[in-house]
Amino acid sequence: MPAPFDPAPFVLCAADEQAPAPRSVATPEGVGDRLRAAAFAELQAREAFLWAADAFCDASDVLRREWRALASAEDRHLGWLLGRMAARGEDPAARPVSGRLWAALTSCASAEGFEILIAKAEERGRLAGERFRTAMLPLDPESAAVFGRIADEEAAHVELARRHYPASAAAAGLS
Known about the structure:
Layout: H1 28-55, H2 61-88, H3 100-105, H4 111-135, H5 141-164, H6 166-171
Helix pairs in contact: 1-2, 1-4, 2-5, 4-5
């Protein structure tokens, strides 16, 4: 059972359901869908880093401090995304989002397992941010810039796994 989690201001879909597929990135609604999904991913990551810093007795003090610092970075990203949503008139609760990332992260049995799983999620987010930086530019340059700034910072988050667990990071394709 995952640790308790408050998804506000977002609305979760049922645990056994998928979140609605995003609409075309070439439409205002599709940009909003991606802002919402990314913002919720940042919220889950922030809370997961804070949770992990307290939950894993096998994590070094250095790693715990780094997780707490990353939680601050995730909070900054969340703020950028929510700010952009507000500027566009997007309601975070307008479409349900999936809590599966949170459930998976809080199911990890070790600091290493957690770090590798969240690094993989961060890398997926980084790659998506790079795509959105380009794809959204003609329609919404401000949102494109937000995704680009976040993608630039996510590379350092992935580096944490390489530094603390190099063999596992390489095996997970994070090299």
